[in-house]
Structures are given as C-alpha cells and as structure tokens.
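Researcher: Quick one. two chains, 516 residues in total.
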Amino acid sequence: MYDGRRTGGQADEVNRNQAGIDGARISESHGLRDRGPRGADARTRLLILVLIASAYLLIVFFWGLFMDPEMYATRFADKFLPPGFAHPFGTDFTGRDMFFRSVKGLSTSLVIGAIASAISSVIGLVFGIASAVIGGKFDKFILWCIDCCMGLPHLVLLILISFMLGRGAFGVMAGVALTHWPELTRIVRAEVLQLRSAQYVIASYRMGMSKFRVAKSHIVPHVLPVYLVGLVLLFPHAIMHEASITFLGFGLPPESPAIGVILAESMKHIATGKWWLALFPGLMLLVAVLLFDLIGENLKRLLNPTSGNE
Amino acid sequence: MRLEAHHLDFRYPKTDKWILKDVSLTVGAGERLALVGPSGSGKSTLSALLSGCLAADAGTVLWDGKPLPVKGYCPVQLIRQHPELSVNPRRKMGKILCESWTPDKALLEKMGIEERWMTRWPAELSGGELQRFCIARVLGPRTKFLICDEISTMLDVITQAQIWRLILDVTVQNGLGLIVVTHNPALAKRVCDRAIDLTDINAARP
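Model:
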C-alpha cells in the first residue's frame, strides 16, 4: 500500500518536470496521483481481502446455525481420538467431534457478538448524537455514565450484569451490550460536536439549507463511517468477552457448544496431553477475532476520503 | 438596501477578552468597502457577525432595515480565508458547487474551474482551486451582499486579478454591496470606494 503510493508520487514528480512550467499541464499531472493504476490495484486488493474475511465469517456463522446436532453428538466409542481424517480436530472425553463443535460454538459466539454489538452501537449512536445536540446537563450526565462504565474493570461489570440477569445467552448478551457503548458514544459525540461548528456546516445553513438537509448531506456522511467501523470493531470485543465470561463459568450453560465452554472443559484434560482440545477451538476464535479486526481497519481506510482514492 | 451594524460587542465563549466592542458600520447597496487592520484586530470576527455566521453578544446587524434572516438563504454571504475548511471533505466538488444554485458554464470558465474537477474530493484540489469553488457557489442571484475575508491570499497574482475582475463584474451586474477584508493596500485601492481601519471604530483595543 505504502509502496504503491510512493511510486505514484515519484511518477507524479517526473510528469511534473516534463510538463515544464505550463500551468494547465501541471494540474493535469497532479491528477495522476489519484487515478494511477497501482492505486486502483491497492484498493481492489483491500476490497478482496475484506470480502474473503467476510466470506469466512459468514460461512462459519450459517454452517453452525443450521448444523444438525447429530454432527457433534456424544459417541463414547470414539472418545479422546487425536486429530485425523475422520475427526480433523479430534474428539473430546465423550467422543464429540471437536471440529463440528468448534464451528457450532464459534457460530453461537458470532450470533451473540452480532446482537450485542448491534445493540451496543445503537446505544452509542443515540447517546453520542443526543449528548452533542442537546448539550448542557444531559451531556454532563452522559459523560458521567461513560466515566462510570470505563472506570470499572470491564470484565467485572460484565460478570455482574450477566450474573444478575441469570446468566445464559440472554445474560451474556445483555452484559456485553450494556458495557461496550462508551467508546463509541465518545467518538460519535466528538464527531458531531466538531461538525456542528464546522465552517462548511455554518455556510450551508447560511445558504438556506434546512436542518434535515444539513444532517443528510453533512452530518450523516461523517458519522456513518465512524459508526460502521465502530460496529465492526466492536465484534471482536463482544466475541472475546462472551468467550471469556463463559470460560469463567458466568456465561453460557456448560452443555451448550460454545467456544468458552469448550476451552474451559479442555483445561481439565490438557495436563494429560490432550492438546487438540484447546488448540483448534482457540485458534478458530483467534482467527475470527483477527479477521473482524482486519475488516474494521480496512473499512476505516476505504471510507476515509484522504486515503479512499489511494 | 443597506447593511448596518449597530454597537456590536463580541467575545468568544469562555474568554474574557472582548474582540469587538461598540462597533458600528453602514455600507450602502452597491458600495464597496475595504476593511483593513492589523492581524488579530477582529476583521474576520466582524465579517462572520455581519454575515450571520456568528451571533453578537450585544448589538444588531440589519439588512434592509430588518435583522438578518436566521432561516433560509441569507442575502449577505461570506467567503472565508481558508477554503479547505469551508467545504465538506466528504462531498465531491460538483455537489459542493451546486449547494445553493447552479452556476452556468460561462461563469465556471471565467473562474477557471475545470469540468473534470467536479468528480474529485476536496483533498485532491489545491487551496486556490478550492477557493474558486467557494466563490462561485455564492455568486447566485439571491446574494445581495458579499463579504470577502482575505479570499485571494492563496492565489497567484494573475489568478487574483482574474478572480477580482470577475467578482467586480458580478457585483456591478447584480448591484451587490461588497466588503473586502485585506492586507493588500493596492487591492483595496483598486477594488473599493472607501476603506475603514477596524481599530478606529473598535472600542476594544487588542
């Protein structure tokens, strides 16, 4: 990416020299930086990367969602089989196939992560905009809530909420949803505050634009990319936290196929050399989290106008 | 139709220092006034107040005997010093240009605005190129008074001459009043009928 930009810059410089001092031609060579063939490649590469990552996550999500429970049913005859052709990730102490269990578990995590981060981001968006637009005491109150939420250790608050709401999928979801909004609220609030006093927004009002038109053409295009990137980057947090409180026993019930449960169970057997029980599900979780992070970071780059055309 | 300012006071929020104190000013229709003064004397602040971009702490700005409209198109339009702050970095130039009216091709040609710039983002144009868009977008028929706050400092002298000639043409043609904020005495002399030093009419001394 960076390399491509640099080469483009050099080509631009050469063109500039060839064009001499003729003003029109200088500004023409100026355009090369934006639409150079290498720049277009970099953008396409990024898009393909994002598509592959999304495809992997979607496949895991739907595969797990519609999976026949028979695939990871107990078969005591096959217990503790190491990874092989029949069972790529091995089997556990009741003979359940770890591959299908991991896919199902990750899918459950993705569902919880999706719902929790969707709720969380909507809270963040509403609070952020309201805080910036209403201002005054309401703004102070929201800021105080943010400080309270961020001041407490994340995991402690999560466990508390999940435990109070009776654990299970609902408790975990509520816990994750109610603890992840402060960062996004702060970002959205700052963005809207800055926009409200931006010269081009004031100029737009003076040119007779209504509040609705200003919101549509100036505020939303700025807040939406921030929101989308925030939403995608919330995913890995949500999934990790879901897995970690389930691992600690405050989350999903032990019989459900969840990555946290699988990892917690595997701890009992890891000392006896059953390494595959922890390694593969752990890797799958890690890959999913890293992919979400990659999508988020690349979206940030694609949606930013200063790097969007590179 | 006159632009009048009566006893304007202004200070920026959360500061004690008055930028403007008891500033009064009248500019008639079709009159061209140069507003001069050292840096920091409040020229840009006064420009923003006169165009309704800022609200004064005390005093009134009257256009045609009435306060400036809060909603709808403001007949007094301001062109600012920093074009890169005056355009939305996430809009394409074509949309920025046509925010309040659609300039015709002849005007764009005279301004030196090229057709292929329309599909670019503001980050892909220079300050001088952006400023031409900022000027062209407020030269519409609903503008009755123009305030130019150091609008040509980022342009080369030839383009400056070209743009000022065009602005003068439009002001004469549409009968616009004009306030030019500038540090350039030659420009003030060439474009304007009279000049006011802001430090002479401002009771708040920097």
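Chain A touches chain B at residues 27, 31, 33-34, 198-204, 206-210, 217-218, 221-222, 305-306, 308-309 (CB under 8 Å).
Researcher: Thanks, that's what I needed.
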